[in-house]
Specification:
The chain is α+β, with helices and mostly antiparallel strands. It is built from ten helices and twelve strands. The termini are far apart.
């Protein structure tokens, strides 16, 4: 059984701790489902004080039994001590010991923080691009499913299509779509910065939404969904990259590469993350998914690893070599066909409302 201890405050970051609980520096964790880590809900718990001044893990806790000699014995094994809870009651035991939190530091992987390929590279005197050209390039990103460090909230939860892909002539150019992706990043950063500075979740959400629509066509962002999304993830303990990935993921712009461990103690994973390649458009993600198998250069590296997704775009030569007749673009066509006249009218209303919000009227 894998066990470890951590700072109690990490587990209860959003809760008001009592004076007794605030002194508790031990928790325990156990791989209850046998998958090799303790990152799933219910596999980490704060240790409970006992009348003898020790701590006991509540995971797999059992009542002690009375022996023929009148003493207590742990049904899980004699090696586990029977202790009376500090609150009173029958003696209990647990197979999962608590350890000193100060002696078990958390080893945490930082966010991926991939800025992606700059939209504008260096040019020569004649205006020719001197940098490498990448078509439908993406960014390596991650979001965290429920775990200890995000207070068991799902920071990868889809909240609907917030970033709109393909709004007619108003967002027809690649440059504008890149601007939309940049706006998402700017908005998430603004919201997270405001929240850390003491703003309420609502105020931070408003700041993030305002930053997202500043300088771009506001109809490319579903403002009401964006505000609700930012508000929810801030209260859930998600960080800036969680927020950005979740928004793009829910909008169909991300390819999930896989899951990896992003935080551990004593070699035991306590928090997982999902690595993605996220693109400026949903169409870009679809073409990447169906174009890569056609090119030998991607055969060995594929999408990289969950911890280090490989998200580069196609070179002009690679893009010209793609056979679009072998691609299934029905997912993208379905989105276009589903746009009824009523939805187009709603988009126009969103355009007007968002613009009025942007100018403060």
């Amino acid at each position: 059984m894998s066990c470890l201890s951590l700072q109690l405050g990490l587990l209860l970051a959003a809760s008001a701790l009592s004076p007794i609980a605030a002194q508790a520096q031990e928790i325990c964790a156990a791989d209850l489902n046998g998958n090799g880590d303790a990152a799933d809900p219910g596999e980490t718990a704060s240790c409970l004080a006992t009348q003898s001044g020790t701590w006991q893990c509540p995971l797999q806790q059992a009542l002690c039994t009375v022996t023929v000699t009148g003493t207590y014995a742990c049904p899980l094994g004699d090696q586990f001590a029977c202790e009376v809870p500090a609150s009173g009651g029958e003696p209990t035991c647990s197979p999962n010991p608590c350890q000193d939190a100060a002696a078990t530091p958390i080893v945490e992987e930082p966010p991926i923080s991939d800025p992606g390929v700059p939209a504008d590279g260096a040019v020569d005197a004649n205006g020719n691009c001197t940098a490498n050209i990448e078509i439908f390039s993406g960014r390596a990103m991650r979001c965290r499913p429920p775990g200890l460090l995000d207070t068991f909230q799902n920071c990868c939860k889809d909240k609907g299509k917030i970033v709109k892909d393909g709004m007619g002539s108003s967002i027809g150019s690649i440059g504008t779509k890149i601007a939309v992706a940049k706006a998402v990043f700017t908005g998430m950063k603004a919201a997270f910065t405001a929240f850390k500075a003491g703003a309420t979740a609502g105020e931070a959400a408003g700041a993030g939404a305002h930053a997202m629509i500043a300088g771009i066509d506001p109809t490319s962002i579903a403002i009401s969904l964006a505000v609700n999304f930012i508000f929810e993830v801030l209260l859930a303990g998600c960080d800036q990259e969680d927020m950005e990935t979740g928004m793009l993921r829910g909008s169909g712009m991300c390819h999930e590469v896989g899951t990896y461990c992003t935080a551990s103690v004593l070699g035991i994973c306590i928090q997982k993350a999902r690595g993605h390649c996220c693109f400026n458009t949903k169409l870009g993600r679809i073409i990447q998914e169906q174009g890569r198998p056609q090119l030998k250069v991607f055969n060995t590296v594929g999408w990289g690893t969950p911890k280090a997704p490989y998200c580069r775009g196609f070179t002009p030569e690679e893009f010209q070599a793609l056979d679009f007749s072998k691609m299934d673009l029905s997912e993208y066509y379905a989105d276009i066909e589903a746009r009824t006249q009523g939805q187009l009218q709603i988009d126009m209303k969103d355009r007007i409302d968002a613009y009025m919000q942007a100018i403060g009227k």
